[in-house]
Please model this.
Amino acid sequence: MILVVIDDDPANIKFVRFILANEGLDIHAASDPQSGMELICKTQPANRPSRLVMPGVQGMEVLQKILEFDPGSMSS
Model:
């Protein structure tokens, strides 16, 4: 399973990688929303949670772009 982590704080990305290290996940990380969207489009992870406050683009905007890219991605 693929997990894309988008966070402007490298310590948070490191923490997520540490906590999930033994879960068998393929973890991809981006430090800004634009790079994160590129990773989401490229890797198409199954679930797409998002932090709601980020510099430049708000998390809700990222979720909206995900829905535009893949309308069925948020169902279930």
User: Anything to note?
Assistant: The mean pLDDT is 76. The longest strand covers residues 2-6.
